[in-house]
Amino acid sequence: MSFKSSDDFRRQKELDEARKAGLAPAELDEEGREINPHIPQYMTNVPWYLNQSHPTLKHQRNWKEAAEDSKQWYDRGAKVFQATKYRKGACENCGSMSHATKDCLERPRSKGARWTGKHIAADDKIEEINMPGFESKRDRWNGYDAGEYSKVVERYEKIEALHKEMKQREKVDELYGGTAAAAAGAAGGADGAAAAAGDGEGDEAKLDEAEEAAFQEVKKRVRTTAGGSTGSVRNLRIREDTAKYLLNLDVNSAYYDPKTRSMREDPQPNKAPQEKTFFGDNFVRTSGDYQAWQALNLHSMQSFDKGQDVHVQALPSYAEMLHNSFKAKKEVLGKKSAADVLEKYGSAAAKAEGDEAALLMGQTEHYVEYDRSGRVIKGQEAKARSRYEEDVLLHNHTAVWGSWWHDGAWGFACCHATTKNAYCTGKAGERAAAESAAQMVANIEARARADEEGRRREEERRAASTLDNSHLEGKSWGEDAKAELQLDKDRLAAALERQRRETKAAAETDERKRKFNSLAAEGEEGVTEEDMEAFRMVKARGDDPMAAARRGEAAAGGYDLLE
């Protein structure tokens, strides 16, 4: 930490207080991240041995890398090298370098590989698995191949298939045995037939009972008053529907409240409705008088918006009375409207067959004339089907206006004309319209290509003009700074000496007698990089606070300069 004067320390304290109050932006570390101004200074200041000049919290972070468990496991039975002769230090029994003689798992030979030099065992693959984590060290299933369980599943399926086959054979044998007994009874007489039939029915009943017993009865010990005895207790859950909390075993599915035994949401939202028997208990919320209560609320809100002083919670009886009055008036108006319609247009369903026959066979004084096609010529004219003209063909068209639609415009389907007052031109007009559209598209594409070609030529012209004037850039406008500038030390020293002489001569020379400076006077080379560097080194800057101190002046801005 560098030394600070009392003024600097006071300014730093004021800045810290402003940062804590949110009046000044927070300080940034070397990575551009903000430092919390409320963190104590002894935590943000870097120790002297880290050579950090800016506050940072990098030294407070955990620099130790987190140990990661290895994802690999031992390669069981893998061999790495097969030797052809015995090697020094190998197992004397089998000749492998992977273990010692006392740890050899092979059958002890009468003469080991050390003395025979034959049948040398291959070296086993020795791996060192890094498991620094607590859980990985104690994982009992680490290295277990889940594919091995498929063998267990396959074996179980084979056993189940054999069980089913055996049951099927037993059932067939029992059925055929009952049929044979019935046939023998029929040959013996009526009594024998009845007995055989009874035996057959008994066999079927026994079979059904056996099947039910296999799925319904559970043997368990039942406590009695006399001590303990073994009895048969039926599982009452078998014939019932599946419990609602067992429909979906996902822990993130619908929540089941065990206290109220309710599951409000649907546990199977993605299942087809016709395949579900339970849709959640929320249906209770919309049953009963819920719809009437919703209608009452809606009517109260609409009445309040229209200026009626009514509220369901504040005046429930008044709100219900208004709603009932509204429903009664609405019903009266509905009946009146229906009566008006029936009175005006009549009801064909209400007429009796006798009345219809009387009307058909009746006579009237109303005179109407018809033509051969059935159209009214004189008398009661038929009403128009629409207020607009229908099926009216204009200007020799064979289709009505609006029978064709293309690119947002209506037209005629016969000639594809989009002007209503245009005359029909037939297929020729249709071809002309298609050719006109194609020509328009071609013109647009040609115009786009011409514009693109013009832009390309303009870019080439500008590029050529830039290349022609490239030899003037270094002399007149300067050049782009190079990434790594290489300067000649001797030429730089000469340029410094020449710059100092020119500066001194310019200071001693009268301003009115100074000569005109020109780039042409510098020779063919012009201003070199060494000249520019010397000019920058010798140039005096007025905004430099240390310039006065270097010149030996007393004006130091009110600060004591320490060296």
UniProtKB/TrEMBL annotation:
Primary subcellular site in the record, as a coarse category: nucleus
Biased composition (Low complexity): 554-563
InterPro entries found in the cross-reference section: Slu7_dom, Splicing_factor_SLU7
Coiled coil: none
GO cellular component term, pick one: spliceosomal complex
UniProt similarity note: Belongs to the SLU7 family.
Name of the protein in its database record: Pre-mRNA-splicing factor SLU7
Native source organism of the sequence: Raphidocelis subcapitata
